[in-house]
Amino acid sequence: MSKKYELNKIETEGGEYCYRKTNNIKKLEFLVLKTHRRLKNIRHNYIHQITTSLAKTKPEYVVMENLNTCGMLKNRKLSKAI
Question: Relative to the CA of 55, which of 2, 32, 40, 44 has its CA 20 to 30 Å away?
């Protein structure tokens, strides 16, 4: 897509560049958005299936924990474990 943008680059009076969006670029952007949306839905569906299967098999011991991984990576000993 970047090649198509570079081909349609226009120089303005101030020496700056702006890009003209052609119909082919719009179609390509739509296809990229569609592919990203599809991948996001696949990931979301997989996580949902795994969590529901865990909840059905072991309903007594489901525990959620929110870890500050960025803060843990700053500590030398914890960063080795992570």
Answer: 40
Show the tokens assigned to 20.
Answer: 């003209």
2-39 CB burial, b ≥16 within 10 A, e <16: eeeeeeeeeeeeeeeeeeeeeeebeeeeeeeeeeeeee
Residues 48, 56: Cα–Cα separation, whole Å: 12
pLDDT digits (tens, 9 = 90+) for 36-79: 999 999 999 999 999 888 888 877 776 778 888 888 888 888 78
Domain boundaries, the chain: 2-81
Residues in the chain: 82
